[in-house]
């Protein structure tokens, strides 16, 4: 058995040692990408220079490196560029333009099908339908790429990065804009999305479902039509992300639906219609986040149980917390800072001596009757809130922070 392993290693090493470079340009011996692909052997490198007009996509069926030297591929509004049907493929330093839209195919700048160990580095995808479309593939790296879609409405746009039934994907340092969903994941596990910017997308900055054991770290999601949606998943880590300026009647900084055993930590929710929306979520640790200048900082609906909400900052939101569910007592608010808290601290331990009830009467009214929001900051709002604080009847009495902080939490 050991001898077989050594022989396989030597064969692979020999293949890479014999790999060659094929240069493609107007003055080169090889002037077309088609001819370069015909001549290529496994592990060869194809170097592209100049502008190439495409009538159809190129298919990669063996391990190859495709590297641009100020190269531009133009789909002329009628085709994608690359279809990968092989393992160990690198595409780097290319500009891919004008796929055009299609209602009958998943047209993408780069399609990845049932392939493993794929790297897409420093690629610009401009005026694209799908940027990258990957399915049933593993070990994909997309780093330092720029995605700019062509859609103006949800019906003529596709997703910037679309992952379906994938595993072990790393999306790092990318910018995605003007797509339907900036980043879309479905049935994609054990993946990391880090330090990306997803902005000005028609629907969601990021949208994923049925994807477990994933982490989302230090990303920025802003000016998206509906914010970010995370649904039907467990063991999710969302840390140090920024969700900002996502506006609209159905827009949320972060929408969580049926998420379990996950952590939402040290994120920044700024100036959203609703910062965090939770539905049927359980066993979440929501710790060390900042909710600032949102319409609703946090909305909890429908059987969200056993969630820990602790050491968060709630700063100058129109409404801090709102819920119509009867089970709010199963969600523990503890040691949060509330800018609306007016209690006192006699022993100087930075914990208020009077519990804080973050849901106000007017928040309940607005949740029941949306049109009543026009009375925000009116005398009637003040009267309702004062009356409810004296004789609480409507708002959930168990929705309470028994140890509110007197000073904001300082995060790293």
Give an overview in words.
With 412 residues, this protein is mainly beta. It folds into 2 domains: 202 residues, Single-stranded right-handed beta-helix, Pectin lyase-like (Pectate Lyase C-like, 3 Solenoid), CATH 2.160.20; 152 residues, no CATH class. Helix content is 10%, strand content 43%. Strand 1, helix 2 and strand 2 form a beta-alpha-beta unit.
Number of domains: 2
Question: Which spans have pLDDT < 50 for at least 5 consecutive residues?
Answer: 7-13
Question: What is the fold-level CATH name, i.e. the topology of the largest domain?
Answer: Pectate Lyase C-like
Structural class: mainly beta
- Can you tell me the CATH superfamily of the largest domain? Single-stranded right-handed beta-helix, Pectin lyase-like
CATH domain class of the largest domain: Mainly Beta
Q: What would the average pLDDT be, to the nearest integer?
A: 89
List key phrases describing it.
Pectate Lyase C-like, 2 domains, mainly beta, 43% strand, 412 residues
What is this structure, in a nutshell?
The protein is mainly beta and 412 residues long. It contains 4 helices and 35 strands. The chain has a 35-stranded parallel β-sheet that branches.
């Amino acid at each position: 058995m050991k001898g077989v392993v050594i022989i396989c290693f030597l064969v692979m090493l020999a293949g890479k040692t014999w790999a060659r470079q094929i240069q493609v340009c107007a003055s080169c011996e090889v002037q077309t990408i088609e001819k370069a692909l015909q001549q290529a052997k496994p592990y060869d490198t194809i170097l592209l220079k100049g502008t190439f007009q495409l009538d159809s996509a190129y298919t990669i069926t063996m391990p190859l490196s495709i590297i641009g030297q100020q190269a531009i591929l133009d789909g002329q509004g009628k085709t994608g560029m690359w279809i990968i049907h092989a393992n160990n493929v690198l595409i780097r330093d290319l500009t891919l333009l004008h796929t055009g839209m299609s209602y009958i195919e998943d047209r993408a700048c780069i399609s990845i099908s049932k392939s493993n160990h794929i790297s897409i580095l420093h690629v610009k995808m401009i005026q694209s339908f799908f940027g990258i479309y990957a399915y049933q593939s593993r070990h994909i790296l997309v780093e330092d790429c720029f995605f700019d879609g062509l859609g103006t409405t949800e019906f003529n746009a596709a997703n910037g990065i679309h992952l379906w039934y994938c595993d072990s994907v790393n999306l790092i340092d990318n910018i995605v804009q003007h797509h339907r969903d900036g980043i879309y994941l479905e049935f994609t596990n054990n993946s990391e999305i880090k330090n990306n910017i997803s902005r000005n997308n028609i629907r969601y900055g990021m949208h994923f479902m049925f994807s477990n054991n994933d982490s989302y770290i230090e990303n920025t999601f802003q000016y998206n039509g509906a914010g970010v949606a995370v649904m039907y998943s467990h063991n999710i880590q969302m840390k140090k992300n920024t969700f900002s300026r996502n506006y609209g009647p159905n827009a949320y900084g972060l929408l969580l639906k049926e998420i379990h055993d996950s952590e939402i930590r040290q994120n920044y929710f700024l100036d959203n219609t609703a910062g965090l929306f939770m539905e049927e979520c359980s066993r979440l640790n929501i710790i060390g986040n900042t909710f600032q200048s949102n319409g609703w900082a946090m909305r909890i609906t429908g059987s969200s149980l056993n969630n820990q909400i602790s050491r968060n900052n709630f700063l100058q939101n129109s409404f801090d917390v709102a819920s119509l569910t009867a089970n709010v007592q199963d969600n523990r608010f503890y040691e949060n800072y509330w800018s609306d808290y007016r209690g006192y601290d006699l022993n100087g331990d930075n914990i208020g001596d009077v519990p804080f009830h973050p849901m106000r009467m007017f928040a309940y009214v607005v949740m029941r009757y949306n049109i009543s929001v026009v009375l925000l900051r009116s005398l009637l709002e003040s009267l309702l809130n004062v009356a409810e604080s004296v004789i609480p009847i409507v708002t959930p009495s168990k929705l309470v922070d028994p140890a509110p902080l007197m000073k904001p939490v300082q995060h790293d």
